[in-house]
Amino acid sequence: MDQQNKGQFNSNFGFLMAALGSAVGLGNLWGFPYKMGLGGGFAFLVLYAILLVVVGYPLVLSEIAIGRKSQKAAIEAFTEINPAFKFNGVLQTAVPFFLIAFYCTFGGYVMKYLFISLGMFGGKQFDPGETFDATLASGSSVIWVLIFLALTVLIVLGGVSGGIEKFCKIAMPALFVMLVVIVIRSCTLPGAGAGLAFLFKPHFEGMSSASGFFNTIKLAGSQMFFSLSLASGCLIAYGSYLSKKENLEKDAVYITIGDTVAALLAGLAVMPACAAYGIEYGAGPGLLFVSMPTIFNDMAGGAFFAFLFWLLVFFACLSSSIGMMEGGISAILDSRIKAGKSANRFGVTMVMAAWALIGNLITTLDGLGSTDRVAWFRIFNAPHALYIWDALAEGILMPLTGFIMAILIGWVVPHYIDDEVESSSPFKTKGFFDFCIKYLGPLFMAMIIFGQLMATVTGQL
What we know:
The chain is mainly alpha-helical. It has a single domain (about 10-460), classed as Up-down Bundle (Amino acid/polyamine transporter I). The protein is built from 18 helices and no strands. The termini are far apart. The relative contact order is 0.20.
């Protein structure tokens, strides 16, 4: 039964698809291949896999267990655990506000490219570089961003089961099917073998020095946090909507593995294609909006695969945008309920939407630094608005608040989630979880934070 009139998932499958939907987004389809390119391929992959096991799984399990045990979002959930750690819930709740401030911009760009890809069926070609430059510079891009934001708001307004669950139960299976089709085509291109070797052939050139190691672990760590939606309030919020009968250990494993599979498939979709066409792996936003369209222009059946690719990215963007927005909305609903007010989802959603509108207008008008429309926003000599939002959320708050949460669960209130996990199934990974949340997790997260600080000091974040 929904104890707070905030909503509840109707099925465990719906919860898993929603959680995966929040996790599988641009962080996988663009961020993973791009950061893998910067991180040296195989070396990045090895560190990413280690981090997923010793940091990702324990934090995913902690967050959904905390959410289900408290039946609250991050701020009130941390307050219930230990009032002294309320600040961590506040910081985690700030994360989706920073992320949503640029995410809808890219969602709008993706919608524009999806529309453009339809013209390719009539034989129409377009210059990827010129199109992307025009997209960044044109104020008309705001229209696409507004459409994407409106779609996000409409689904969130449908509530947990009526909107978020219904969409994700359809979108996520479709996303995985489309991704597999793209991977098969990419890996069968002439010259794709070099991309596969970059991914899977053992080589550690990028970690031959201490600075190289910390840079790679910074890239892998920030990617893991962003990709899994860790320390963003989202999984705690989704956990609070989860039935008490569901097996939390299995759910945490499924979310971690499902997100990893999506990330690897994204790498297999992008890297072999880039190798086949001689395109740089670590090309930033251009990897998605310039490199991939260039490949589709020359590929046999390019129109079909371009449409499939952009539809795939659109689904991924929208499901993640929904998760970010819900993380903030759930926290505000908690504050209303605590104050004795009704859980007014419509009013709270409008507040979150207004913030998203302001943030994305700044990001869109900035055009990744290609215009001077909002030059006043580029504080600390940041090259563009996206840099600021992303540095605050993914670069600082996510690993920092994840580290604090591990200290809380591992040291301050050890075994806090045990009864919640055991209420629905035996806690089979308890020994492994305790060791990771107490020792390995904080150690690796400290290294990630150190790598972030080094990158910030040297201007390479």
